[in-house]
Amino acid sequence: MTVVNSKELIEAKRAVKVPFDLKLRFAGGATESITIVEIFRLLPGKRIVARAKYKGDDVLAKIFLGKTADRHAQKENEGIELIATAGVRSPARLFRAQFIDGDGVVLGFQFLENSVSLEAKWNDADEDAERVDVLTRAMIIIARLHNQGVVQTDIHLDNFIMSEGRIYTIDGGAVVRKTDPPLPTKESLENVSWFFAQLFPKYDEFVSIVLPAYEAIRLWKPDPDRIVRLQEQIARSRDARKKSFIDKTFRDCTRFISDSRFSRFLVCERESYDNELKDLLENIDDYIDKGTILKQGNTATVAQVNLVNRAFVVKRYNIKGFWHGVRRALSRTRASKSWANAFHMEFLGIPSLKPVALMERRLGPLRGTAYLITEFVEGLDALAYLTNRSHFNGEVEALVGILVDLSENRISHGDLKATNFLMALNGPIIIDLDAMRQHKNEEKFQRAFNRDIRRFMRNWENEPDVAARFQKVLPKTYGN
What is the pTM of this model? Predict the structure, then answer.
């Protein structure tokens, strides 16, 4: 088995291959090896979470790398101790060991067989009752932590795992004592709001259902005003979380690769970035010319590009001429706006096109032609799909559901034609997002959204049955 030291792990960045051995010095000076067999999380050059073999048994190994390794390992230890003082379960710590060669610390924890995160339980839930159960379990644990003045600063469902019917709290590195026990109401509601802000807005209706479980542990009397304050805080926390999420889509991180040069800017979904896609990006105009042209216009060219095992839609935002290029050079590109808006839709749980890569031609700070690559979705646009249809099977209601979601989040599309909805196998999705905008001002939003609805309804002037169906299910306030 290959023995790897901390320097090699740091230099490998994301290209860490298992299995490998680590030679470690344990308490008392004993020197032993552990074998890393499966990597769960990797923060290049800083931290690895993995399944390891130690004396024949599975352990969860948290590997801290570099000159800050001791500090981060100590922070993890302190967090685990705080969890325990609150009477909350966490996997037992089995050992602490130093790398023999280089800067690094390994903490070994009990490995919980057949464990599942509450995030996975949430995603697998088919019924609201199952979702309420997941949230209620989390609320009880969070309340117990808060009773001791303890806060999970990176609070989300993935930091709670279930094994044999028991819930364990993990990630001690993000657990701190904020105040002397108990945590004050203001700080408590703020931390709870960050928990709910990870969920799509449509699940905010569960807050009033599951909060009593938290209040019971805190010995708080029910207070309707408290729920109102919490809902307001959730909205603020979700806005902050959304900004952080969208910012990450433009830089190198776990999910994305980013390459910024003098002559171009590129960001791409990491799991899609293989040799085929690299070749497409390097020769993108050739691929567009050889592809199936879906739209040819002065401002944009759209083509379907088929690779060996997958298909993409490539949209090129054209420069119409010299002065158009000058005006656009210092402005944010429409491709960039569409990329950000697509991930905004993902954040809110609204079905839309799935972006794969964004590329901009550049000359230093000056922007030129830009490209957006998205997954190809099989399906007719809503206009073609619904025209001359003899019966309906929930398609109209599904389209209206997207409109309602946009409205509830104060989002206008800017070009809400029926052709900007694709009727995919799993339901409609919204496309052409570069003019989409979220409004802070309610009055301005209503004007923009009502324009969207009027534009959308003009598609059905020659389809009275379809128009009547939409008029029946659209909220009466739309389009007035």
Answer: 0.90
Count Cα atoms within 13 angstroms, Cβ side, for 381: 13
Q: Looking at the domain that runs over 256-375, which CATH code has it been given?
A: 3.30.200
Give the bridge partners for 20, in sequence order.
Answer: 36
The CATH classification of domain 116-248, taken from the options 2.40.50.100, 1.10.10.60, 3.40.50.300, 1.10.510.10: 1.10.510.10
d(CA 354, CA 376): 8
What three-state secondary structure class fits 60? strand
Alpha carbon distance 83, 79 (integer Å): 6
CA distance 349 to 351: 6
* Plot region of 116 (φ>0 → left; ψ -120 to 50 → alpha; else → beta): beta
Task: Pinpoint the residues of the chain covered by CATH 3.30.200.20.
Answer: 6-110
Residues 6+ apart with CB under 8 A from 10: 45, 65, 66
Tens of pLDDT, residues 306-362: 999 899 999 999 976 655 555 666 789 999 999 999 999 999 999 999 999 999 999
Output the CATH code of domain 6-110.
3.30.200.20
